[in-house]
Beta-xylosidase
Amino acid sequence: MEKQAYQSVKVNIENPIIWADVPDIDVIRVGDAYYMSSTTMHMNPGVPVMKSSDLIQWEIVNYVYDILEENDEQLLNNGKNEYGLGSWASSLRFHNDTFYLAVASFSADKTFIFQTDNIENGKWKKSSLNGVYHDMSLLFDEGHVYMIYGGGDIKVIELTSDATAIKDGGLNKVIIPNASLIAGPNVGLPAEGAHIQKINGMYYVFLITWPKGEGRTQLMFRSDSIDGVYEGRIALDDAGIAQGGIVDTFDGDWYAMLFQDCGAVGRTPFIVPVEWEDGWPIHKNIHDVKHGSSNRVIPAIVSSDEFDQALEKQNPTYLANIEVLQDKGLKLPLVWQWNHNPDPALWSLSERPGYLRLKNGRLSDSLLDTRNVLTQRTFGPECSGQVALEINHMKDGDLAGLAALQENYGFVGVKATSNEKCIVMVLGNSKQEQEIEIIPITSNRVYFKVDFDFKNMIDQAYFYYSLNEVEWHSIGKPLQMKYTIPHFMGYRFALFNYATKTSNGFVDFDYFRVNETIIEK
């Protein structure tokens, strides 16, 4: 790995460190670089790996897989989907020059363990265990490989030395029974979200619980042996900030890397200073850290895209070799993820250089069962996304545009019929869609914008269109956004095109541009 300049974490800490949906984080340090994995469930490629030099600024450098499985759930076939059921709560570790990542999938009913020797650019080798080991955490310990997991009762199971299978006759027992009880008897969510770390010869297990009527609470336990007696205490009970482990810096400081439920934008990562007292990692009050409530910045895990990848590779023989160029692997930037498995035959950056082409190859009932919906995270305190769209090849019954995507969604787009094209604003969910406003047009190039306001959990999205990229018109009504468990994900910008009557139509997106400010209401 390329060596980088170390930066002190103590400079300008603001929470959340990323005001966007980056949940279930697991952070490690390797030399002077930090790496973080997170949950993206039904999005592909999946399990992003992010890198930082200071624990504050993060960028995506790789994904663990392109697609995890190819069943009806992942392909949105036969009325099935894997919303909220893809890959959950990964565990990232580094041992003997190899990176390991474990992750469970409820739709596959498996737990996967991936390995690579190049976390930033390498491919990951995959093995699998039958069943879901809920919120697992890996530990490599003096020739043994353990996996801690479970809810309520926290368990350990031993893996083979290559971490590819369950070890016959290996350790397999409950190590912390009724782990929630140290936060009181009024248990809502039993303890889960295990992170195990061995530090100075002691075993530390970090968990969360959620007492009824209270907030998410961080717990910590310690023992002098992996299956010994664990003593526990509350690590942090403040504003629901919980779930994660701790990491040391290059100069010896320690921090907890946790997250907070933050309304419709999703679950946002927080950094909390840690000081050691009597062998306990004491989590300091988060109010000792500056909050970035007024901070306006586009996180590096979100980006505009002019879709110029083909133009950048263009050469004199390009027009005669489009398929060859496509085969050479034009790729979207790592900030993008597809909703469920994409169909590679139905999107292109090379068929029209400078544009993203989304093609229809099947019929869909709604946005939520549409393949090749391309997404990025939204972010707070507010943000705006804009697209330019060329629509002259749409077919009767096609819809294409820009959406605020979650289970309760809204979009502004173009609806094509046999007689005309209309701009339409739609609100919908998994049960129904409603057209709020329809405006006939004759133009074959249109512009759409969606503004997101997450300040103080206002959680509203506003929709606009333009025919000349200068004059913007509000359309429909605001979407009252709501974080829902069926999708288990913060709202996303979503570029889409789907057919309801006949396939083979397509649209061309000229660009996607993101901004950290919105139109004043």
About this structure: The helical segments are 72-75, 309-313, 322-327. Confidence is low (pLDDT under 50) at residues 1-6, 318-322. The CA atoms of residues 165 and 426 lie 48 Å apart.
